[in-house]
Amino acid sequence: MTLAVVPTDQRLVIVMIVLARAPFLVVLTGLVTMLAVSDRVAPWALPAIALLVAFGATASSFRMELEGQWPVAACVLVSVTLLAFWIVFSLTRPLLVPPVLDTSGIVVESRPWGRMNAVSVKTPQGGFVLTLPFASLTEGQKVRIKGIPRPFSGTPRSGGFREDRFWRARGMTARLAKTEVSPLPDDSWSIHRWRYDLYRSIVLRLPRLTGAYLNAAWTGKRDPELNTAHRAWGTSHLLAVSGFHVGIVIMAASCVLRRGKARVYGLSLLLWLYVFLTGAPASAVRAGLMIQVSLLGERVGRPGSPINSVSLAGVVLLALSPFLFWDIGWRLSLLAALTIAALLERGTAQDWKIWLGISPAVWAATFPQVSWTFGAVPLVGIPINFFAPPFFSFVLALASGIAGIRLLGIPGTVFVADALLYVLEGAFALWGVLADVAAQAIPARLEWNPFLVYFFAGCFVTLLCRALFVPWRSVAVLAPLGALSAFILFGT
Predict the structure, then answer these.
(1) Are 243 and 281 in contact (CB under 8 A)?
(2) Are 186 and 139 in contact, with CB atoms under 8 Å apart?
(3) 265-295: per-residue pLDDT in tens?
(4) Closest by alpha carbon to 470, among 345, 334, 337, 304?
(5) What is the mean pLDDT of residues 367-386?
(6) Residue 452: which residues within 8 A CB-CB, separation 6 or more?
(7) Of 29, 105, 15, nearest to 61 (Cα)?
């Protein structure tokens, strides 16, 4: 914990400031605000907006008498400025694509797209999206493609969806028209092919519910029926690969790698292997970066601030792909992670009060964004999420171990593994029944409301400020202003 100690009237007054605890939160705030107004402001003015917001956030807790703040403040403001210029350049630079494409590549993703199927192909010339009437191509497959590149549409559709931002956030350059596709023989190894083979093995060799949950956790592929059910229960985040799943993997591995020099390196290797196996979604990469920062802090003996770690991960992701800002999954993941980090700043992971507070706090922090995107939020999600994290933490970890033994086909273990998997299948089925009963008992849904949005945004700002020990007199000013700014930027 970083403290600034100032002698005053022969007393030591401990002053904790935002710059001392979470300088990257200031950077993140400036960049997010800049991106939020990017559709309404000329590109050349965006870096000035980011710098102005960062300067305001810095000044809100700045103490003239503390000498150590000046270098940190200067570094923060310089970092914001440089990153802002880089992000504006990334957003506005023209993409160079050939007029006609004739090359080979690897299928990295295949997903439903309306009545068609969208296939993402990585090539030496960039990433390209083609639509096919059927899911005839599989991930990891090598193909030869011919077509005419066309820019993605930048016209907003219903709900504000923009095709260009969606695909650019996933590393795609253009879509292909008049496409000819032909599979190529290829026996080379790739993480995409490995993920698809694992997906098929899980579907074919494991019970349905258990396989669906493990596919969501291991490969990032969601079962549509299961996804619909969890959305009605207010627990759809359990199917999205995020910090929840990454945390389960690292905690399980920590039971084996308890100490020694190999601990940090072994956990880091396993961490990124898992992240890339799941397709490296933004939420998983964010969690991976956050955990990696903590592991490096453990290695050098300097534990960091949870809020600073989450903010650093968010900044890195925006620098790598600014289009992630418009991805709903990235936003919800960041909001949830910042909320949990703020609670941990004032307590420990072993404190039961923290765990009881996580569910309602995350629900409140994400309500403005979820209700704006989906129209309403099921109230049943609040009580269900008190029990869902511990249940799925235990059952998914147990199912992963047993399924791993079953898929490896270790002699003498198949019968026992199958029996245990069907017991777990019953546990998942029972969870679904109980969740359905709870959803029927609490059918109410809370719709988007400007007063609720303003209130919950203010609660989120207050939580962050108090986690960083900002005085209440400052919070009384920052919370209303912060909530109003968020409401104007994201709610209009």
Answers:
(1) no
(2) no
(3) 788 888 888 777 777 776 777 777 777 777 7
(4) 345
(5) 85
(6) 367, 368, 371, 446
(7) 15
Q: Using CA atoms in the order 166, 168, 169, 170, what is the torsion angle rounded to 10 degrees? A: 100
Q: Mean pLDDT lowest for which of 42-46, 280-284, 446-450?
A: 280-284
Counting Cβ atoms within 10 Å, is residue 316 exposed (0-12), middle (13-18) or buried (19+)? middle
pTM value is: 0.83
Q: Alpha-carbon distance 228 to 237, whole Å?
A: 12
- Express each pLDDT in 174-199 by its tens digit: 999 888 888 888 767 778 888 888 99
Q: In DSSP terms, which residues pair with 15 in a beta bridge?
A: 4
Residue that is written with structure tokens 């200031």 in the block: 26
| CA–CA distance, 490 with 492 (Å, rounded to integer) | 6
Which residue's structure tokens are 């590109």? 43
Sort 293 into a burial class: Cβ within 10 Å, 0-12 / 13-18 / 19+: buried
SS3 49: helix
User: Which residues fall within 8 angstroms of residue 190, CB to CB, at 6 or more apart?
Assistant: 106, 140
Question: Confidence band (pLDDT; 50, 70, 90) for 2?
Answer: very low
